[in-house]
Write a structure and sequence with these properties.
Strand content: 15-25%
Largest sheet: 5 strands, mixed
CATH class: Alpha Beta
Strand order of the largest sheet: 1-3-2-4-5
Radius of gyration: 13 Å
CATH architecture: 3-Layer(aba) Sandwich
CATH superfamily: Glutaredoxin
Helix content: 40-55%
Order of helices and strands: EHEHEHHEEH
Number of domains: 1
Structural class: alpha/beta
Number of strands: 5
Length: 120
């Protein structure tokens, strides 16, 4: 299953309308995001009904990207943020193929936050 690549306006609308956590993968044009994208896409099927997954090209959407991730972090490689109700609940930087477990734990923790909010 693949993740849609959105521009800043569409990504912002997804975040504003989402009742579920939104996993945003920020990729760069240099191709380093391919490995990170494969890792995230390998998890989509497991979490797709509970988490919204999107990708954003950081260089083409610098304002939106810098709202969520420091530009210096993106210079080091792909990064991801999980938002819940417009607030960041997890951030991951320097993503690569070895990070499947780290990404899965962050996604799972965003769902725990959701359950706590639902009980309150």
């Amino acid at each position: 299953m693949s993740m849609p690549l959105l521009d800043d306006d569409r990504a912002q609308r997804v975040i504003e309308k989402a009742d579920s956590p939104v996993f945003m993968l920020f990729v760069t044009a240099d191709g380093r995001g391919k490995a990170a994208r494969k890792v995230v896409e390998s998890l989509i099927e497991h979490y797709d009904d509970r988490v919204i997954f999107i990708a954003v090209q950081a260089e083409e959407n610098p304002g939106f990207a810098s709202t969520w991730v420091l530009p210096s972090v993106l210079q080091e490689g792909p990064a991801a943020v999980i938002s819940r109700r417009g607030e960041a609940v997890a951030a991951l930087d320097h993503l690569d193929l070895a990070d499947r477990e780290r990404v899965a734990k962050a996604v799972q923790s965003s769902l725990v936050v959701k359950r706590r909010e639902d009980r309150a």
